[in-house]
């Protein structure tokens, strides 16, 4: 088992979690994503379990971020982008005609690759989400709660009025997580949330994700295999494949419990990727 | 073999001094900017010396006159007041319209649609239409067509249409400089598109919009040609008292004064130019300061 | 850290449909579009204001006389309507202006884009902006009362008239330097650095790289800048009205006083002509001609800018 990946610690038997029964939040079937005529991702089947951390890994250009952005319909913002197949969210078609993408994004939060705090105070960054969702008045408790949950409260409680851009990169990213939490989403999507951070800040975010997974369903896209192994319950491995017309498409290769993906993958391509022979 | 290899002693990486040509080229380039600057300095010094004897309070307190006997005390009060009226109304009309149009083009318009490309091309084109043609629009449609006559409101509408493309172009630049990540962050929290624009994009682009607006309004303040067609050509000897009042503007009064044959009257014109340039330099400095202060915040 | 959060139950019960109507968004979008359409309305308004009186003008004055004669005097009696003198004056002043502005503006652009250190840029950019912000009536004054007497002293053999096309053209040239410079600089700045580095790697000097690589790569932007500057020069009114004068004699000699199309419009429009009269309609006929000329140039220029933006964006 450990011979394949001697350097990777898998969150496995030491931290046992009952992940046998999959309580689905998202059920993705035969999802393809197009940008204009180009099919960026083809035929993905995937299930995201409730209050689990699901990691999506794979080489660049494999479509993992594209799939992630379908979960809160951020892809709608790109002209010409469209999804085929289906994504069911608690049994409701996420791309159904009646569905309001804004309502979707209120329910499903997102944290981006590069920390993107608003050029406003720390307080206003947190309060922004609730405000645009119709909350009025002071929201000190809510701000404190969100910052506490994001493990940032102690560092910023004395400077809530300060501009968020004055924080360090790692603090900014935790602020963005707090900002997402403040609208009380059910799911948090994270698009390579640590790729712009140093190792210490990365560790803090990873610890935070573990904490958050008690209350939230988390889907994380990462370049970093060790990170996927450390934090996630299940892992989806994507790769880019060239079809008969020599067009590249992102494909889902394998989706399984993280411990199995990293110790005993069933697909040769997964094994090659995680052992560093490819990618 | 020996012939093909370069003897080590002849290879020199050290600079031999840049060739003369390179230096001359650089100096010629720099000279072009120097010419522009020297020209500005000479222009400023010239108008100040020409107008010096009449740079007094009478200039901004009294009404104009083309008679040499009044040249020692005549002023351009009605022109200053007319400019204030017209430019204030222009700001009220052109700035909101221009910012809204810019928001449409940057945030809503689908660039692949022909009509949006047409609007864009049309704005670039309008920005370069000669100002005298706007005068024709004002004369033919607004003044005589709508029957508003040679009034303050006619002047203000005409001037608004003239500066609108400039405001739109500047506001678009400012909106464009707000990074897309801010919009994504807001939308991902469930904000609507307009909430995102109103609460994130516009506040972040205020400095840029302000800079562009100041520059557009300073263009408006210096504009004379369209007013020649709008009845502002005469030396009005009263201040405007309403939207339907007849009026003159400072640049048109300057035009009348400097083209007068009497040197004493021309001096009043030169002094009025100093006033006009002082206002514009002040506005330009504020705009440049604003831009440098708020540049690159991300 | 053990929060009781989230207070709301997982979204199973709640639908993803719109929770409350958002008519506001649609109204706002319509409002924004309306603001953008003001620009279209302006163009339509300009064309509308020009077309009718121009047609009426050509019902009274034949196109043959308008384009076939070199006598221009619509405001005097007997009125003559041969447009060539003011067209030639416009071309001549534009030509003088371009001769001044293209070398100076391009040199300024190359310097700012390729040579200037940030500090130097920060100093010279505002100089160009202030130059662009000087009202043209001020340039007119400078041409009339400073430049013309100066040229008379230096070149007495030219026999400059008190108002003349030469001084006016030179000042129009200075006026359009910022247009040439800033648009050219934009297009040079858009040239990818890889091209420059490729040239430097081959051992080319900065001068060669600027002239042989950057300028050709930015060519369409530079042409757009020059076309726009030509259009500005052709339509400039106050400089020519003050320093070029209103006489319309058919001549190519720039030492003479001569009225351009814009100057004629200003002169005729400033007099209180009665709405139906032929002289009044002449304003619109000449206006149409000026508008068409500048419109075509602007359109070309805007299209070229749109193109180079597409290439490098």
UniProtKB/TrEMBL annotation, chain A:
The keyword Protein biosynthesis does not apply. SMART domains: AAA (SM00382). Residues 26-265 form the ABC transporter domain. SUPFAM superfamilies: P-loop containing nucleoside triphosphate hydrolases. Gene3D superfamilies: P-loop containing nucleotide triphosphate hydrolases. CDD domains: ABC_PstB_phosphate_transporter. It comes from Nonomuraea endophytica. GO terms for molecular function: ATP binding; ATP hydrolysis activity; phosphate transmembrane transporter activity. NCBIfam families: 3a0107s01c2. Keywords: ATP-binding, Nucleotide-binding, Translocase, Transport. The keyword Transport applies. It holds the Pfam family ABC_tran. GO terms for cellular component: membrane. This is Phosphate transport system ATP-binding protein. One of its GO terms (biological process) is phosphate ion transmembrane transport. PANTHER family: ABC TRANSPORTER I FAMILY MEMBER 17 (PTHR43423). InterPro entries: AAA+_ATPase, ABC_transporter-like_ATP-bd, ABC_transporter-like_CS, P-loop_NTPase, PstB-like. It comes from the Bacteria.
Automatic annotation (TrEMBL), chain B:
One of its GO terms (molecular function) is phosphate transmembrane transporter activity. Belongs to the binding-protein-dependent transport system permease family. CysTW subfamily. One of its GO terms (cellular component) is plasma membrane. Its main location: membrane. This is Phosphate transport system permease protein PstA. It comes from Nonomuraea endophytica. It is a multi-pass membrane protein. Residues 80-286 form the ABC transmembrane type-1 domain. It is found in: Cell membrane. The chain crosses the membrane at residues 27-48, 84-105, 126-146, 152-171, 220-238, 267-290.
TrEMBL record, chain C:
Residues 87-301 form the ABC transmembrane type-1 domain. It is a multi-pass membrane protein. It holds the Pfam family BPD_transp_1. It comes from the Bacteria. It is found in: Cell membrane; Membrane. The chain crosses the membrane at residues 26-51, 83-111, 123-144, 164-183, 213-234, 282-300. One of its GO terms (cellular component) is plasma membrane. Keywords: Cell membrane, Membrane, Phosphate transport, Transmembrane, Transmembrane helix, Transport. One of its GO terms (biological process) is phosphate ion transport. One of its GO terms (molecular function) is phosphate transmembrane transporter activity. Its main location: membrane. CDD domains: TM_PBP2. Part of the binding-protein-dependent transport system for phosphate; probably responsible for the translocation of the substrate across the membrane. Belongs to the binding-protein-dependent transport system permease family. CysTW subfamily. This is Phosphate transport system permease protein.
């Amino acid at each position: 088992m450990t011979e394949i990946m001697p350097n990777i610690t898998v969150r496995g038997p030491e931290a046992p979690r009952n992940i046998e029964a999959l309580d689905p939040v998202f059920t993705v079937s035969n999802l393809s994503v197009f940008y204009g005529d180009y099919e960026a991702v083809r035929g993905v089947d995937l299930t995201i379990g409730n209050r689990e951390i699901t990691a999506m890994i794979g080489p660049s250009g494999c479509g993992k971020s594209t799939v992630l952005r379908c979960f809160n319909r951020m892809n709608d913002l790109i002209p010409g982008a469209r999804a085929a197949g289906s994504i069911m969210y608690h049994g409701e078609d996420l791309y159904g005609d009646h569905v309001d993408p804004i309502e979707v994004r209120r329910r499903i939060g997102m944290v981006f690759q590069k920390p993107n705090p608003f050029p406003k105070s720390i307080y206003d960054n947190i309060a922004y989400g609730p405000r645009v969702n119709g909350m009025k008045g002071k929201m000190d408790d809510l701000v404190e709660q969100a910052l506490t949950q994001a493990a940032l409260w102690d560092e910023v409680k004395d400077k809530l009025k300060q501009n968020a851009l004055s924080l360090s990169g790692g603090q900014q990213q935790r602020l963005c997580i707090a900002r997402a939490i403040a609208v009380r989403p059910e799911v948090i999507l994270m698009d390579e949330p640590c790729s712009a951070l140093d190792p210490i800040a990365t560790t803090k975010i990873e610890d935070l994700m573990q904490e958050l997974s008690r209350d939230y369903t988390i889907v994380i896209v990462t370049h970093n295999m060790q990170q996927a192994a450390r934090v996630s319950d299940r892992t989806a491995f994507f790769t880019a494949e060239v079809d008969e017309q020599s067009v590249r498409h992102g494909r889902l290769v394998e989706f399984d419990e993280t411990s199995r993906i990293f110790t005993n993958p069933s697909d040769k391509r997964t094994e090659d990727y995680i052992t560093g022979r490819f990618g | 073999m020996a012939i093909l290899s370069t003897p080590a002693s002849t290879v020199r990486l050290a600079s031999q001094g840049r060739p003369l040509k390179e230096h001359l080229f650089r100096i010629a380039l720099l000279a072009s900017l120097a010419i522009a600057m020297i020209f500005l300095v000479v222009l400023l010094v010239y108008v100040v010396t020409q107008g010096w004897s009449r740079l007094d309070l009478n200039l901004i307190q009294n009404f104009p006159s083309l008679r040499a006997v009044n040249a020692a005390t005549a002023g351009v009060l009605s022109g200053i007041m007319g400019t204030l009226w017209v430019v204030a109304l222009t700001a009220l009309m052109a700035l909101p319209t221009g910012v809204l149009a810019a928001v449409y083009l940057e945030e809503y318009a689908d660039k692949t649609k022909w009509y949006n490309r047409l609007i864009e091309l049309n704005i670039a084109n309008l920005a370069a239409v000669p100002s005298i043609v706007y005068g024709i629009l004002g004369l033919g449609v607004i003044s005589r067509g709508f029957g508003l006559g040679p009034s303050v409101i006619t002047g203000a509408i005409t001037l608004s249409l003239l500066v609108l493309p400039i405001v739109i172009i500047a506001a678009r630049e400012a909106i464009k400089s707000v990074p897309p990540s801010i919009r994504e962050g807001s939308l991902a929290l469930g904000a609507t598109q307009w909430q995102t624009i109103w609460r994130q994009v516009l506040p972040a682009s205020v400095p840029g919009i302000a800079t562009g607006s100041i520059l557009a309004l300073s263009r408006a303040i210096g504009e004379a040609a369209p007013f020649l067609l709008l009845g502002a050509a005469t030396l009005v000897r009263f201040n405007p008292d309403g939207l339907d009042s007849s009026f003159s503007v400072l640049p048109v009064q300057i035009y009348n004064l400097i083209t007068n044959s009497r040197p004493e009257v021309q001096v009043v014109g030169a002094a009025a130019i100093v006033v006009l340039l002082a206002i514009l330099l002040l506005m330009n400095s504020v705009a440049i300061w604003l831009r440098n202060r708020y540049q690159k915040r991300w | 850290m053990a929060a009781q959060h989230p207070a709301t139950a997982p979204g199973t019960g709640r639908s993803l449909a719109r929770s409350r109507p958002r008519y506001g968004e649609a109204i706002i979008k319509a409002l924004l579009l309306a603001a953008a359409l003001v620009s279209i309305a302006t163009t339509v308004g300009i064309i509308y204001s020009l077309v009718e009186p121009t047609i009426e003008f050509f019902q009274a004055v034949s196109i043959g006389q308008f384009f076939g004669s070199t006598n221009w005097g619509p405001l005097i009696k007997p009125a003559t309507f041969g447009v060539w003198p003011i067209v030639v004056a416009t071309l001549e002043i534009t030509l003088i202006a371009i001769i001044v502005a293209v070398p100076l503006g391009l040199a300024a652009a190359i310097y700012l884009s390729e040579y200037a250190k940030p500090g130097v840029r920060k100093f010279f950019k505002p100089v160009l902006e202030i130059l662009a912000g000087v009202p043209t009536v001020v340039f007119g004054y400078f041409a009339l009362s400073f430049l013309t007497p100066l040229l008379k002293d230096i070149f007495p053999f030219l026999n400059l008239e008190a108002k003349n096309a030469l001084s006016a053209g030179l000042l129009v040239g200075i006026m359009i330097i910022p247009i040439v410079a800033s648009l050219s600089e934009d297009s040079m700045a858009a040239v990818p650095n890889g091209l420059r580095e490729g040239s430097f790697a081959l051992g080319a000097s900065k001068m060669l790289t600027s002239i042989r690589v950057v300028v050709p790569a930015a060519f369409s932007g530079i042409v757009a800048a020059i076309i726009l500057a030509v259009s500005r020069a052709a339509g400039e009114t106050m400089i020519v009205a003050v320093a070029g004068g209103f006489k319309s004699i058919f001549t190519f000699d720039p030492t003479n006083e001569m009225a351009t199309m814009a100057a004629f419009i200003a002169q005729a429009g400033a007099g209180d002509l009665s709405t139906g009269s032929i002289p009044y309609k002449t304003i619109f006929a000449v206006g149409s001609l000026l508008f068409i000329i500048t419109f075509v140039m602007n359109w070309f220029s805007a299209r070229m800018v749109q193109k180079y933006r597409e290439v490098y964006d």
